[in-house]
Amino acid sequence: AQKVTQAQTEISVVEKEDVTLDCVYETRDTTYYLFWYKQPPSGELVFLIRRNSFDEQNEISGRYSWNFQKSTSSFNFTITASQVVDSAVYFCALRGLYGGSQGNLIFGKGTKLSVKP
Amino acid sequence: GAVVSQHPSWVICKSGTSVKIECRSLDFQATTMFWYRQFPKQSLMLMATSNEGSKATYEQGVEKDKFLINHASLTLSTLTVTSAHPEDSSFYICSASLGLSKDTQYFGPGTRLTVL
């Protein structure tokens, strides 16, 4: 079975603080893909990153960074120097090649991030 | 980047009527499109997967006669909610991908349906 767990339901920080959103996944696939999406209040899901299971190199994009640890089945997302515009619900998702529902995206329940000025 | 549009962005209808939602991939050909439903403060629930030119594959518990999906071209998929009822009120989101399992799904802006 495939599963994505985002244990943090809501996080509130003050602007300029760093914040890490946790994501833990379960899969029996040896090849799989992990994603992070941002859903601002407008509702549209914005693609942030895709990572395949063979690439454990951490990635940094501006204030965003991702830490992929296969040993702990985690794919955590860190925002440094958070800004009010970062306020949104963030979803972690998993897509296997063979498992799950025809290789479809399996979403976590999301973490709502509120950044206060 | 890949752009997916949805129309309408919101719709209010009377109970018993049918509503059609369009999903278009604007700058790429989407072999596969997905329809999701999202209730307030909840995650996305996959309703069905559609491949161009073939019948949609529905997730367990989703009534295919109620939620009609047509993927007539590589850039357009439609979801028709037939005989809508208040419990069908939700946020419907489509996504599109090139169809390979490694491909990223790009999401539309969503359609908020309210059935009175």
Spell out the blueprint of helices and strands.
The complex is a heterodimer of chains A (117) and B (116).
Chain A: E1 3-5, E2 10-14, E3 19-21, E4 24-26, E5 32-39, E6 46-52, E7 59-61, E8 64-69, E9 74-79, E10 88-96, E11 106-107, E12 111-116
Parallel strand pairs in A: 2-12
Antiparallel strand pairs in A: 1-4, 3-9, 5-6, 5-10, 7-8, 8-9, 10-11, 10-12
Chain B: E1 4-7, E2 10-13, E3 19-25, E4 32-38, E5 44-51, E6 57-58, E7 67-73, E8 76-81, E9 90-97, E10 106-107, E11 111-115
Parallel strand pairs in B: 2-11
Antiparallel strand pairs in B: 1-3, 3-8, 4-5, 4-9, 5-6, 7-8, 9-10, 9-11
Q: Which descriptors apply to this entry?
A:
heterodimer, A: 117 residues, mainly beta, six-stranded mixed beta sheet, four-stranded antiparallel beta sheet, B: mainly beta, 11 strands, 0% helix
Please give a quick description of this structure.
The complex is a heterodimer of chains A (117) and B (116). With 117 residues, chain A is mostly beta strands.
Structural account:
The complex is a heterodimer of chains A (117) and B (116). Chain A has strands at residues 3-5, 10-14, 19-21, 24-26, 32-39, 46-52, 59-61, 64-69, 74-79, 88-96, 106-107, 111-116. The N and C termini of chain A lie far apart (41 Å). In chain A, 0% of the residues lie in helices and 52% in strands. Helices cover 0% and strands 52% of the residues of chain B.
Number of helices, where a helix is a run of at least 4 consecutive DSSP H or I residues of chain A: 0
Ranges of chain A with pLDDT <50 over ≥5 residues?
Answer: none
Query: What's the β-strand tally of chain B?
Result: 11
Chain pair forming the biggest interface = A-B, 25 and 23 residues
Helix content of chain A: under 10%
Strand residue percentage of chain B: over 45%
Sheet of most strands of chain A? 6 strands, mixed
Net shape of chain B: globular
Along the chain, the helix and strand elements of chain A come as EEEEEEEEEEEE
